[in-house]
Amino acid sequence: MVERAEDEEKWLAAGIAGLQQNAFYMHRALDSNNLRDALKYSAQMLSELRTSRLSPHKYYELYMRAFDELRKLEMFFKEEARRGCSIIDLYELVQHAGNILPRLYLLCTVGSVYIKSKEAPAKDVLKDLVEMCRGIQHPVRGLFLRSYLSQVSRDKLPDIGSEYEGDADTVVDAVEFLLQNFTEMNKLWVRMQHQGPAREKEKREKERSELRDLVGKNLHVLGQLEGVDLDMYKETVLPRVLEQVVNCKDEIAQFYLMDCIIQVFPDEYHLQTLETLLGACPQLQPSVDIKTVLSQLMERLSNYAASSAEVLPEFLQVEAFSKLSNAIWKVIEAQVDMPIFGAVTLYSSLLTFTLHVHPDRLDYVDQVLGACVTKLSSAGKLEDSKSTKQIVALLSAPLEKYNDIVTVLKLSNYPRVMEYLDNRTNKVMAIVIIQSIMKNKTCIATAEKVEALFELIKGLIKDLDGDLHDELDDEDFKEEQNSVARLIQMLYSDDPDEMLQIICAVRKHFLTGGPQRLPYTIPPLVFSSLKLIRKLQGQDENVVGEEASASPKKIFQLLNQTIEALSVVPASELALRLYLQCAEAANDCDLEPVAYEFFTQAYILYEEEIADSKAQVTALHLIVGTLQRMHVFGVENRDTLTHKATGYSAKLLKKPDQCRAVYACSHLFWVDDQDSIRDGERVLLCLKRALRIANAAQQMANVTRGSSGSATLFVEILNKYLYFFEKGNPQITIAAIQSLIELITTEIQSDTMSQDPAADAFFASTLRYIQFQKQKGGALAEKYESIKV
């Protein structure tokens, strides 16, 4: 191969040298107006193009140099004609060149000037030239010669509005010339495939691929002729071109030329000749990539339909959908070994076409999806990434077009197509669906639609057969489940009964999701239910036919069972938070037994499931905070729950945690907006107990670390004293506050005290607050007046 390439370089260099030498003498002859020598040297120069040794790529380099020289020669011929030299004589004269290839190049060059002079009808000269070129049957030399003919004549074709149009010359002659040249060039191009040994087949195909634009140029010029109207295209151009395409029986030529036809002629022509164009598809060689051809055709037509609403009636008139649908069915039937990817690509293109042309015809869209299901049924689950990506594109198209999942849910074959995706791609598609819902803020308002939606996204909601969690990254899994959680807010109905049915449907699906998913999916479901409860507040007693209707009591029962499901995870801290949220909602609905039950469940979780000391501290503060806001409990129930909470506080592991929990419990005995809960003595008891624990914490620090520890706890307790002092608790006296201030001052000034800037700053800030209240004036200032700081 290397030797061959080196030889080619030598041959090309020799050819260029010979060409340049003769070109030099030709220029000298042109400069001296010596026509005979100019023709002699130009013929010798063009003889370099007779070589058979060069590859098409190298031959092209040589040809382009010759082409540049011929342009100069053409300019000379024009000058000669202007000076009175007979073009007819010149046309005769160049035909005396010794070799046929130089003779024909010169003939084409003079012919170009001959047409321009208008001394003879353009059609006669063109016909003469195109016939003469048959003298070269070597594929490469013949293709370049005819390409040269096409190049020099393209601006001299008789066409509407052209200066060469006349009584004798019409656009029909131009079309005939181009079609004849195209036919001959295609024959030469195809012949290349059958020359040379079989082992060089791949090389020949590569060379042919390099030359294909020479053949396609004729169709490109045809497509630009003003005079080629729809009737001429339908009656003459398309049938002649397709005849050549089908009869050449060559895979490379058929694919390229079909693509050329689709690209160079107007979309409206394709639409009006759809039957003819599609009729040629089954006649092509089985190995032709027909899916790409049809896909490009449908893409062109889709863009044409999208360009203007005015053209849509044309599509209906020619029944474009049924014709394309039948053509695809025939192609898939005929090519039994067509890979699934190819078939899905065709259906994807047809679906895009349908959505552009018939967006209102959901039956058409469903028909395409149904045809796809039929094809997929023979393949089972898809594994190759190309096919699955194409299916995702197919399924995404309706979502992008309608921007409404509710419309897509009406397509009965949509979920059936999804069944054939592998588990990973099924999840990808489910994410696409959820993103579409969130982006378009689509509300799914009935339980039936929710069921249909969850059938589509079931890959995210539960483990599919053969699904392995190990394959999925933890971050990806979290992102997936967060997407599902975000979806819940879009499942909403203003009708309470319908909303309850939606919640039940979602709950049914979520509970099948397994322990890994529940911590992500249960919370949004609980809050969606609580939203419905708040909407129903106060309606419970007035509802008629309570058994059949949504009521807070019913929903609370459902919530109790739902949160209980978290025990399998286990996710006790999350469950405790949700129980407390439900208790607060029950409080707002004045349902004391329900609220008490939720608190009981929270307490059981605290006692039996939460062992970590940090988690206990967090949970206890949540319990105290929620209980403090409750107004529904009677004295007995409240005392029971409060007693439990204070008991838990004293049992925390670390003394500082105990102290903070105990003084937090003081709020359970004094609630501003409830006169019945103002027990000053119990508040003082909690604060004194907190002081004792703080003192014990300091002593323990002194024993273990040799320092009495920070005064932060004492400052925090002082702030609680001030809070209840302001609220009017009679048990909180100025003397108690004063002694606590002195205690903290002593502690901070103590030599053994380890420095804690944060505690010092906190205490200083508290003293400033007292000073500020004194200076503020009013009743509160009088209370604070006696405190010395």
TrEMBL record:
Gene Ontology CC: cytosol; endosome membrane; Golgi apparatus; late endosome; retromer, cargo-selective complex
Pfam families: Vps35
Protein's UniProt name: Vacuolar protein sorting-associated protein 35
Organism placement in taxonomy: Eukaryota, Viridiplantae, Streptophyta, Embryophyta, Tracheophyta
Listed InterPro entries: ARM-type_fold, Vps35, Vps35_C
Topology class, membrane: Peripheral membrane protein
Localization per Swiss-Prot or TrEMBL: Cytoplasm; Endosome membrane; Golgi apparatus, trans-Golgi network membrane; Prevacuolar compartment membrane
Function: Plays a role in vesicular protein sorting.
Family, per entry: Belongs to the VPS35 family.
Record's keyword terms, sorted: Cytoplasm, Endosome, Golgi apparatus, Membrane, Protein transport, Transport
Record-level GO BP terms: intracellular protein transport; retrograde transport, endosome to Golgi
